Amino acid sequence: MASSNSDGSRTSSRGSAGSRGSRTPPNSAGKKGQGDSAGCGAKPKTARPSDRLNPKTVDHFSGGKGQTAFASLYNNGGVPCRLVHGSVKHKLAWNTPPEQLPFDPVLPTLAEGLRETVHPYTLVSCMGFKEMLESQGAGSKAAPLLPKVVTPLRAALIHPNNDVFERALDGLGHLSNAVGPALNPHLKNVLMALSKRMMDKKYRDKVTDTLQLLEQNGGKEVLPVIKGKVPTYSSIFG
């Protein structure tokens, strides 16, 4: 009888250990999007299947914790768009067409989101920023907001995360295309960050392309400003 009780005890112990070993791991939602690459065409990490989500249209208003005010606004429905997952590409579905939205506060809010490192905020912010600046009449609407937009854009450009920097660099190009010379008085706020990245071979070509775009859109008067911060830069005008 003692042997039988001992065997039962060992069996119970093994069952208990097995129970401990099968515990469900903590929810991983809101992990940093280290797999996100620069640009708005980057694919986010594949999410785990969930019966709570539509397989094509994903509303992330209950998503993971972000790092900026953008994440909080997005989770509370303050950003008028949602991410639509396609089989090849992802896109945004806007509650209201971007050209009909009030650029203030939507555009500065999206600029704030460029510092995010968590999916879906990374993708929504950069895609939303790009699409608003490409909408009809964006230049005249965005120009008065440059002080509000350039500040968070600069914060993203000096961010230590490479993916954040690349999204901000992409956003700077879209902003320049939209507002043209109106950006000139604000360039000193972003050029120092670009100058530091020029020393990194990985980003030298991308930064040069952006500087050329700034000069092209801003005119010849921009060259002394750029050269003041990036002495090695060569003008596109020869």
Automatic annotation (TrEMBL):
Residues 48-59 have a biased composition (Basic and acidic residues). Signal peptide: none annotated. It comes from the Eukaryota. Residues 1-23 have a biased composition (Low complexity). This is PACRG-like protein. Residues 1-62 are annotated as: Disordered. InterPro entries: ARM-like (IPR011989), ARM-type_fold (IPR016024), Parkin_co-regulated_protein (IPR019399).
